[in-house]
Structure formats: C-alpha cells, structure tokens
Amino acid sequence: MYDVQKIRADFPILGRRVNNRPLVYLDNGASAQKPRVVIDAMTKAYEEEYSNVHRGLHYLSTVATEKYEGVRAIVARFLGAPDPDEIVFTTGTTEGINLVSYAWAAPRMEAGDEIVLSVLEHHANIVPWHFLRERQGVVLKWVEPEADGSLDPQKVIDAIGPRTRLVAVTQMSNVTGTLVDVAAICRGARERGVPVLVDGSQGAVHRPVSVPDIGCDFYAITGHKLYGPSGSGAIWIAKDRMKEMRPFLGGGDMIRDVTRDAVTYNDPPMKFEAGTPGIVQQIGMGVALDYLMALGMENVAAHEAALRDYARERFRGLNWLNVQGDAPGKGAIFSFTLDGPAHAHDISTVLDQKGIAVRAGTHCAMPLLEHLGVTATCRASFGLYNTTGEVDALVEALELCHELFA
User: Fold this and answer.
1) Coiled-coil annotation: which residues (predicted)?
2) Nearest to 12, CA basis, from 30, 31, 38
C-alpha cells in the first residue's frame, strides 16, 4: 500500500514551516527534495568513505570506487538497460545531451542535415542543436503540439526527411506535463534509419522506464529531479551509437595511454568521463534510485495520476484560472495564468506567503511559451510526497490571488 504520510516522513524538509505556514513544496519539476537515506548516504560517504576513485590501491579508494561504480548497475536497472556499460555518468541531462551533440552529432552532420525537435522541448534539448545550426549549418525542423498540448507522434515521424540525422524529443514536458509517446516516435524513426534521443528529465521521474521498450538510441536523466543530489545524472547510450562517438572531454579516466605523440582512449563508458567525477553526488543518485524502485515506479505513477485528476477537478471550479496545455493523460504538472493584470511573479509571491513553493517564469522553454501565447506562467509540479490537502491549499491561495488582482 502506498502510504504518502509515511513517505513524507522520509523527507526532513517537508516538516519545516515557511512564512509561519507548513511548507507545500510544488516545485518538483525544477528540483525535488531528498529523502533521509540519500542525505545519510552522502554524509557517510564524506565522513567515512571518501577518496578519489579508480586509480588508488588503498582501502578508502577501493570502497569509494566500488560504491561509485555500483551506481551504473542501479541506473541500468532503473532504466531497464541490459548492460551497465551503456550508462555514462554526467552532471545531469544538460551535459548528457551536450555529450551527444559534441561526440556523436557534430562529427557526422553537414550543412543542410536536419534535426527534428518538438516545440515542447526544454532549452537543454534545444541549445546544443542550435550550436550545430550556428557552427555547421544544421537545420532544425520543429513540430508543434496540438491545441490541448499533446504531441502527435505521427507528426514527428512525418517531419523526418532524407536529410534528417536525428530526432530529439522529450518524454514529458516540464511546462505542461504532456506525456509524449516516444516509443511510437522511435518505431517510426527506426523504420527510416534515424536515431532518437529522448530527454527523460521529467519522464523518468513520474513513471517506469524501459529503454528497450522505448526503442531509443539515447536516454538522459537528471539526479536532482529524481530525489537525488544536484550535479548527478546519467545518459544511456546504445552500444552501436557508443562505437560511433568520439570523446568530448579529455583527461583523467577517459584515457588508456598517453605519450608525447599519441593518446589511446579508454573503452566506453569511461571514454566519455573525463576528470575527477562527482563521486558522492553519483553515490547519492544511486541511493535515490534504489529508494524509488523500492516504492515502485508504478505506485508513484498511480499516486501522481490521482493527484493530477484531483487538481484538475479543483481547477475546473476556478473559471478565471487558465491552465496551459491540459492534455489527457498528462503528468501532474500544471502551468497557469490568471485573468487580469497579475504577472506570474506576483502570483508566485502571494503563494510563497502561504508557504507554497511554485515556479514562475518561462521554465527554460521559451519556444513553447511563445507557442502558447504567454510570456510567463506559474507552474505547480507535484511529486511522490504531495497530497490532496496540498492541492486544496494551492486552490485556497489562488482564490486569494484572484481577490487581490481581479
């Protein structure tokens, strides 16, 4: 049984008060809070087990290396990946996508080659491709969502042409919560011989993931959204694609031999991990993923679906609240504006006085907000520890905002 109150007790910060009100944390889409097991594991790593990894022969280095490297298998299990050696550690999805841009895409793309993107994308899955547009003349082809915020996978497939070299698409919009049928996109792209990169920053947080079932070539995740520490993350890369990639950063464990005249690179995944890594951060992410798998991602998804449905019903009673892109089957993420002069920052400030943490702005998704016809929104993004009572608190605070700004 999914006991949300018991789960909440695992997160120390949820017991605090903000502005003399119980904290209602609804900014999970930006960064989730950390359970005690993650905090304790990272504290232990620093207090009792810290050392650099891989090259040391002493006891502490061995312990740190075993814990650090053990996280690859945890990530692989979390993503349903068949081999831990397909997991490259990163600082988060942004680095993972940039790795693909520099190490795989840049060497094989020429002026006029195309990358297909959706307008739902986070800047992290836009800017690296703009680099290729600016520097190599690559063409970005955009696919727009439907009026309800959903993304028709066939439209993405139909955008693939003879010069398309990559499809890069999110699994879930961080603005609207739109869930994208990435498996259907991957099937269509594979039939046309085009690889697919999936931004899993939001998708992996809210539902089970199996990269073999999705059928993608690259799948990136971010630790701090998965109830782990910032500065942690990973990208799954299919072995055939790994063989096509050149190193992105140089130094440290990505080499096997270095002479004055030559360098021999390490085998993947080490080939793509230069320098001293975020040892404790990755250990913390591994503990966070174990925590999620112990809860069961199916259970997390069911809990959040119930929250989504409850929030949607409550919001429908507020005829002055404008929810952006409220597609069926979306995740528990709501971006909204209010009728009247109130800016998203004004709304966020009032909510904060009630102890409610939401995000306000463009959410690193300017093309999507432009498509929606708004300059900024407030975003309430729910997580595995949120409750229907917190939905009620949000609605009550929004009613106050309406009174103040109407």
Assistant:
1) none
2) 38
